[in-house]
Amino acid sequence: MKSMERMQPSMAHLEFQPAGKRIEVKKGLTILEAAQLAGIKIRSVCGGAGSCGKCKVIVDEGNILERSESYKKFLTQDEIARGYHLACQTQVLSDITVIVPPESRIEGQQILVSALVSRVEVDPCCVKKFIDVDLVELEDKFGRVERLARLVRNTLGRELLLSDLALLKLEKMMMKGTNGLTLTINKCATESEVIDIDVGDTSLRNYGLAIDLGTTKIVIYLVDLRDGNIVDTESSYNEQLIYGEDPDFMEEYSAAFCIPGKPEFFPSIRR
Predict the structure, then answer these.
(1) Mean pLDDT of the region 238-248
(2) Residue 37, exposed/middle/buried by CB under 10 A (0-12, 13-18, 19+)?
(3) For the chain: N or C, fewer Cβ within 10 A?
(4) Where do the structural domains in the chain lie, given as residue ranges?
């Protein structure tokens, strides 16, 4: 006959508020680990080592186990009385309800998206050149490619290399009359490589992305490559932030540990 202890269920349900998200996890996981599995973004500078005190949560109901008493040094007596705990130091023993206060939520922080760009001469690898040519005037596709290569060579003084994408688009354009072509050229390669072709003159539309990849945020700037001006910005939290804000610790931890059945739980970090 099985003992009562062995008959106890090994899984527990957690409910995170105010998100209203529920998740089933194995008993013994910390609240922080459960939150990471549920996609609840709780601030954790130290990555769960219990040394920063940033992952404060309120356990509203349910049974828990503290890994140690050291967590109390990060909490006031009032917080302890109100049921505050450190998510990384609190293990789940039963179904529990967890309240994540505003100060522990990553979503509550402001992302700085403004950027100060020094005025420098812009010299991007990818440039756009308009060439006045009508492909229909030529009889075969080989002649068209040779003529295009000659025109680019005369324009840039370099040999032409057509990428697979450019060749495919060129073939589709062959039987259509064009009012010229705009070539997107990677001039930083050993040979000038045409990586894209547009019908008509689109040389005034040449944009690139400047990406600020940080441990806490990712900001992407859309930059006009003709003058270096920022056209637009988009930002988001780095999804790796929930595993800690020290990049060396994040990489070491992700390489050393992986939850069975969920290999993406601690993805590799590369900056």
Answers:
(1) 64
(2) middle
(3) N
(4) 4-109, 126-199
Cβ-count burial 91-119 (b if 16+ within 10 Å, e if not)? bbeebbebbbeeebebeeeeeeeeeeeee
Out of 57-71, 73-87, 201-215, the most confident range is 73-87
Residues 91 and 65 sit within 8 Å (Cβ to Cβ): yes
Q: What is the pLDDT of residue 268?
A: 39
For 4-109, CATH gives 3.10.20.30
Residue 96 DSSP symbol:
E
Place of tokens 């688009």: 169
Single-letter residue type at 129: K
Strand order in the sheet with 207-213: 207-213, 217-224, 230-237
Give pLDDT tens digits for 159-181. Answer: 677 777 777 777 677 666 667 78
